Amino acid sequence: MTFSTADLCDEYNTRVQVCDPGLRDYGGHTRFRGTITTVKCFEDNSLVRSALSEAGAGRVLVVDAGGSRRCAMLGDLLAALARDNGWSGIILNGCVRDSAQIAATALGVKALDTHPRKSHKRGEGQYNLPVRFAGVTFVPGQQVYCDGDGILVTDEPLIQHHGE
Q1: The CATH classification of domain 5-156, taken from the options 3.40.50.10090, 3.50.30.40, 3.90.850.10, 3.30.70.920
Q2: How much is the CA Rg of the chain, to the nearest whole Å?
Q3: How far apart are CA 91 and CA 89, in angstroms?
Q4: Which of 32, 72, 67 shows the shortest CA–CA distance to 152?
Q5: How do the domains of the chain map onto residue ranges?
Q6: Is the pTM of this model over 0.70?
Q7: pLDDT tens figures, 90-131
Q8: How far apart are CA 149 and CA 156, in angstroms?
Q9: I want to staple 31 with a disulfide (CB 3.0 to 4.6 A). Which of 130, 139, 147, 150 is the partner?
């Protein structure tokens, strides 16, 4: 992928939302993009697993885990599942575990931090509704662009103007 969020932000300034800093890169890919699918859950990653079990088709799963730093919502097995099912990446308002293995996985992953404790499995949460964190509202069907400089969200694809 050849895009730069800085360049996209410069060119489409009024047409993009820019996430507040704070989400760090954990995946093997630091540059990723795709159509947004969302999950909202708190300390229960059952719906994360369900979503990542679907064919990703280059989508990005945005998970609002309420900013919890008391457990991980994504580990190496779910990251591998996402990669194998064709997801482009995961943006997580929560923590990951197995960070060394996730870093070796061909997948974009942005999250708040790491935590060794796994989440609960109660089947709780909501799927494909607007979620808000990092100063941005993520709406299913919108486009997201991520790299080492940040995360941009827009209603329309921008990348065709940048060589892809």
Answers
A1: 3.50.30.40
A2: 14
A3: 7
A4: 32
A5: 5-156
A6: yes
A7: 999 999 999 999 999 999 999 999 999 999 999 999 999 999
A8: 20
A9: 147
